[in-house]
Amino acid sequence: MTYNFDTLALHAGQVPDETFGARAAPIYLTTSFVFKDSDQAAALFNMERAGHVYSRISNPTNAVLEERIAALEGGVGAIAVASGQAALHLAIATLMGAGGHIVASRSLYGGSHNLLDYTLPRFGITTTFVDPRDLGAWRAAIRPETRLLFGETLGNPGLDVLNIPEVAALAHEHGLPLLVDSTFTTPWLMRPFDHGADLIFHSATKFLGGHGVAIGGLLVDGGTFDWDKSGKFPTLTEPYEGFHGMDFSEESTVAAFLLRARREGLRDFGACMSPLTAFQLLQGVETLPLRMERHIANTRQAVAHLVASEAVAGVAYPELENHPDHALAQKLLPRGAGSVFSFTLKGGRPAGRKFIEALRVFSHLANVGDAKSLVIHPASTTHFRMSDAALVAAGIHPGTIRLSIGLEDGGDLLEDLDRGLAAAAKA
Amino acid sequence: MAATCSKTSIAASLPQRRPDPVQIELNGQAAYAYTGGKPFDAALPCVVFIHGAQNDHSVWGLQSRWFAHHGFGVLAVDLPGHGRSAGKPLPSIEDLADWIELLLEKVGAGDTAKNVSLVGHSMGSLTALECAARHPARIARIALVGTAVPMPVSDALLGAARDKEPKAIGMINTWSHSPRGTVGGNTVPGMWLLGVSRRLMERQQPGVLHNDLAACNAYTHGMDAAAALACPALIISGSKDMMTHPKAATKLAAAIKDARSVSLDGAGHALMAEQPDAVLDALRSFIA
Known about the structure:
The structure holds two protein chains of two kinds. Chain A has two domains: 5-284, Aspartate Aminotransferase, domain 2; 289-425, Aspartate Aminotransferase, domain 1 (Alpha-Beta Complex), CATH 3.90.1150.10. Helices cover 40% and strands 13% of the residues of chain A. Chain A has 18 helices and twelve strands. In chain A, β2, α5 (110-119) and β3 form a beta-alpha-beta unit. The radius of gyration of chain A is 22 Å and the shape is globular. The mean pLDDT of chain A is 95. Chain B has a single domain (10-287), classed as Rossmann fold (3-Layer(aba) Sandwich). In chain B, 41% of the residues lie in helices and 15% in strands. In chain B, strands 3-5-4-6-7-8-9 form a seven-stranded mixed β-sheet, with helices on both faces. A two-stranded antiparallel ribbon of chain B has the order 1-2. In chain B, β6 (116-121), α4 (123-134) and β7 form a beta-alpha-beta unit. In chain B, α2 packs parallel to α13 (276-287). In chain B, 61% of the residues are buried. At the A-B interface, α3 and β1 of A face α2, α6, α7, α8 and α13 of B.
C-alpha cells in the first residue's frame, strides 16, 4: 500500500533503526563513516554500492529529511542544504555556467533577487525579470541561452499566484525546466509537480521547520524533465571528467539532476546541512499538516478582521475577491493561500510605526513561517532608506504591514491586531 | 529514437572495436545498452542485465557499475521500445530472448566460449530463462531476480494497462515495494523509491506496459524451458514480493537441474532498488 500525506509527513524516509529500534530519526552527528573493507570503500566512491562516505555529501539523518520532503512533494528525491539560498544556488549551478540566462518573476524574495540581479552576473549568469502575471513577458524574455524559468508559488510582497501550469507549459515548449520556490505554500497547500513544475526548492527555515530554530534548504527533483530530449544541459547529458567521465542522464534516467547536484554541487560548493539541523527540521515536518491547517484558519480570521477595519486601506490576500489572482488561487490553492500577507494602514509611515509598537503577541522581526506570529513594517525597517514614492514603485505603501500569522489562539491574535489598529488610528 | 552516443554506452564505446554505432542495429532498429561506466570490451566475460516490464537499464545502476569495474563487459540493455532503444516493444518473451541473442552476436560476446551471464528481473528473468533454453551454446549462467514461472497477470491489471495506464502504473508501484520500501529508508541517500519507480514507468511510451504484461502472461511454457536448462541458475527472491511470490521461486528452483536460491528478507519485487547491496553480493558469488 501507499500512504497519504499526513502519514508520510510522520514516517516517510525512516524506519526504526535495526540496532536499537529508535523510533525517532537518530541524529548521526558524525563527519564520516567507517568502511567495511577496501573493496567497499572503492565501491562507495565509484557508485557501485549505496551508502554514506562523508557528511558533506550525504548523511543518514539528512537522508530521512530528503526522502520525506520528496515523498510529500511527489518527487524522486531531494537534497538538503544549508539554507534556501543555498538550494537556489545549487539548482542554478547544476544547470548552467557562465553564459547561462534565467527568466524569473520579478516578485521574488529579496535574497533571491540579490543573487540573480547582482551576484550571479559576476559569474556570467544573467537574469531577465518579468511580471509573473504576464505570460507574454515570460515568452518574450526567453533567449537561446536561457536555461531556467523561475518564480515563487506566492510572490513577494503582493502574493502573486504563479500560474504554474501556464509557465511550465511555456518552459517545456522551449525545452526548459521550471523551478519554483515553494516556501510560502509548502506541499500541504500545493504540490507544484502536480501542476507541471520540474524542480522545487524550500527555505525549510520557514514553515517546514516551523519553529524558527534552524536554517535550512531543500532542493527537490520531480524526475519528469527529459534533459536528453532538451539537449540544452551538457552538465547532465555529457561525460563529466570531474566524476570518472560519468554521464548523469545515462546513469539515472529520472534523477540525473540530483546526481550531479550531489556529486558535484555538495562536493565542491559544500553548502551542506548539519544533521542536527535536519533533525530539528524533521520535528517540524512531522506536524506540518496540523500546523498549516491552523496557520490558514488563523490567517482567514485575521484577513477578515482587517478587511472590516476602518483603519485599513487594503488587504492583499488571494482568497479575497479583489485580489488579481483570486480565481487562480481558487484553482491552485484550494486549501489556502498561505499565512504571510500584507495590509496597508491608512495613516502611512507613522501609523505603521505605532501599529508595530502597540502589538504584544506579534513579534517584530525579519522572518516568516514561525509557529509564533510575526510582523514587520517594511517602510521603517527593510526599506527604510526608500522615499514614499520609491516604496510605491516597489509595490510597497508607506503604511504597508507584513504579517506572518502563527498558531496562537485566534482570539488573542485579533485582540492584538485591534490594539495595533487603535494605536495606528491615533498616529 | 536515434542511437545514443555517450562514451559509456554501447553505441559509442564500440566504435573503437566494432562498427559504427549506426550498425549496432537489431532487426533494423537502433539498440541501446548502458555499459556500466566503462567502454564495453567483448573479450571480457560478459554480463547482460535485462530489465522488467515498463523499465529501462537504470534499474541496474549500482550492480552494473560494479561488474563493469571488476573485469566484466557489461550490457545493461534497454529492450526494444523501452528507454533509449528504438522500435516497438516486442510482443513475446521468445522474441525478447532472440533479441538478446542477436545483441550478443552483434557485439561479439560469447563468440569463442560460454562466457556470457544473463541477469534478468521479472519480465527480464523470463527473457533470460528463455534465451538460455533456446541458445544453450552461448549462455554460461543465468540469474533470475524477482521471478515466477509462469508469470500470470490478472485481467484487472491487464485491463488497466490497456485502458488506464496511469492507474496500472500506480497498482504496480504499490505492489512492487515491500512494507518497508513503501515507507522509505532508501540506501541511496535522498532518493524516494516510490517516486523513482513511478517516474521511470511514466517515461515509457504509451502501450509499452500492456505489451510487456501481455508478454509475461502469454509465456506459458517457462517450466519446460526450466527443465531443459543446461546451465546453472541463481534465483533471487524477496520475502515480501507481492508481484512474484517467493513460493514461485522455490517451485522454479526445483524444476532446474543446477539451481541455487537466495531469499532477501523483507525485500519486495523491486529488489535491486530496495536491497542493492544484497542483490550485488548474490550476483557476485554466482558470477564473479
